[in-house]
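can u pls check wat happens w/ 6-O-phosphono-beta-D-fructofuranose
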Amino acid sequence: MKRIGILTSGGDSPGMNAAIRAVVRGSIYNKMEIYGIERGYEGLIAGDIKELSVSSVSDIIQRGGTMLRTARSTHFMEPEGFKRAMDMLENFEIEGLVVIGGDGSMRGGVAISKTGVPVIGLPGTIDNDLAYTDFTIGFDTSVNTVLSAIGNIRDTSSSHERSTVIEVMGRNCGDIALYSGLCGGAETVLIPEVELNINSICRKLIQGKNRGKLHSIIIKAEGVPVSAQELADVITERTGLETKVVVLAYIQRGGTPTGRDRMLASRMGYRAVELLRDGNDSRAVGIKGSAIVDYDLEEALNMEPVYDSAINELAEILSI
Ligand code: F6P
């Protein structure tokens, strides 16, 4: 392999830059040319493609977001857009591609790989919703950002003796809510994987108040099928507690990546280079325990998500 391309696609995540840096420097170290494709599949279709050097990725390891920028491309899903994208890979003589993104971005990679171009997928999403890997790049930073927000909200909630519903991202996956809820000492964590029980939420809040609790934090994942405001209204109506709403939204998707995310991104990025260098077919790179692993790209995306109910039970036990 002489020349590889790299793109980031879908929602950005902290650590994507560290992964780009690892792929760029790893490729150059292994005597391969590396081309950066801007704005994901949109930029591929438009031919926004530039060769990257060692210094192109200086001073980015600590930055959130993605220096290549990103997009959600519907054009790429259409035959004409897809053909143009494939023509661009050929025009630039790109023989292998690294795609950093979530499920949808990697599925785009599967479509490309079926034409014979090997694609290596790196899991770049805050959602932690890819079944084949224990953790995705950006998840840890996002959880830490939510923890910092919980701390701030707790201060003012105690002063005013309020309850607060904090809505976090994660699409259909409850991991950001679960990890930040457990580590932030939330009274209640609501995730899409577990059915909502409004009676038990209200009972717990009242019992806490009766024990002298000055505030309550309820973490709700965005995938739970009730809005944060509707939930707050029901809680106020049924408990009499003043309940505020904070939707953290994009705050939890930006910011400097944690050391853990930078490490994950650097290790996964370099594995992607090794896989292409060694002539592998399309693979998805992940982490299992402390080991960096790789699976057939399409098989990885078809793995069934396994929800870790033990963490939810622990969050419940520790928040009695
Ligand atoms: O997949 C990352 C994510 O931030 C999800 O948690 C969220 O549901 C979605 O992207 C938001 O997408 P957009 O940036 O298009 O609003």
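The chain has two domains: 3-138+257-301, 141-254.
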